[in-house]
Amino acid sequence: MAPGLMIALLVVPIAELWVILQVSDRVGVLSTIGLLILVSILGGWLLKQQGAATWRRLQATLRRGEMPTVEAIDGALILFGGALLLTPGFLTDLVGLALIFPPTRASLRGVFRRFVKKSAGRRWQVIESRSPTARVVKVEKSVRPRGSTPPGSSRLPPSSGDPAEDPGDDSRDSR
Q1: Over pLDDT 70: what percentage of the chain?
Q2: pLDDT at 131
Q3: Is residue 27 part of a domain?
Q4: How far apart (Å, rounded) are the C-alpha atoms in residues 69 and 109?
Q5: What residues make up the domain containing 81?
Q6: Are 160 and 169 in contact (CB under 8 A)?
Q7: What SS3 string covers the chain?
Q8: Mean pLDDT over residues 20-25, rounded?
């Protein structure tokens, strides 16, 4: 597991509990629970509205024969925002709402695109080109240089093709 993810899994719940306790000290326990429920209801409504709108835009873009890159990114951000809204707490609700609310989602779209491109660049070769009608991104699996071995594997000497010389070949035992 990535170290950043491990730290987030430890820090976020502690921060959420601290914020919930601070809010409950200021406004009371019942009001805090009410606020959490209200934010969840409003977030669910916004999630449904924005998800449906993004789905309609994606379908319209496909009908025009265009690549729905913006709609796909919006869909991913909305999905992640919805998952954060399911997590109880004010901090995750705040980030989740920011990912679902259209103006803030539009400003985060470029950040998400760069993150995915950087992550994909570690495993895939990304080749970008621009045409007058669309932006085309070609993604190809990265190929190891000839003669290199994957990490953790051993390099075996090449076989001559003679079954008598290759002890691992069981094709000669066809009795």
Answers
A1: 68
A2: 54
A3: yes
A4: 10
A5: 20-141
A6: no
A7: CCHHHHHHHHHHHHHHHHHHHHHHHHHCHHHHHHHHHHHHHHHHHHHHHHHHHHHHHHHHHHHCCCCCHHHHHHHHHHHHHHHHHHCCCHHHHHHHHHHHCHHHHHHHHHHHHHHHHHHHHHHEEEEEEECCCCEEEEEEECCCCCCCCCCCCCCCCCCCCCCCCCCCCCCCCCC
A8: 96
Mean pLDDT to the nearest integer, 59-74:
91
Per the confidence metrics, is the pTM higher than 0.90?
no
Let me know: does 70 contact 124? Beta carbons within 8 Å: no
Q: Is residue 162 part of a domain?
A: no
Alpha carbon distance, N-terminus to C-terminus of the chain: 49
CB 74 within 8 A of CB 109: yes
What does the angle CA 106 – CA 112 – CA 117 come to, to the nearest 5 degrees?
135
Tell me how many domains the chain contains.
1
What is the structure's pLDDT at 143?
Answer: 57
What residues are paired with 139 via a beta bridge?
126
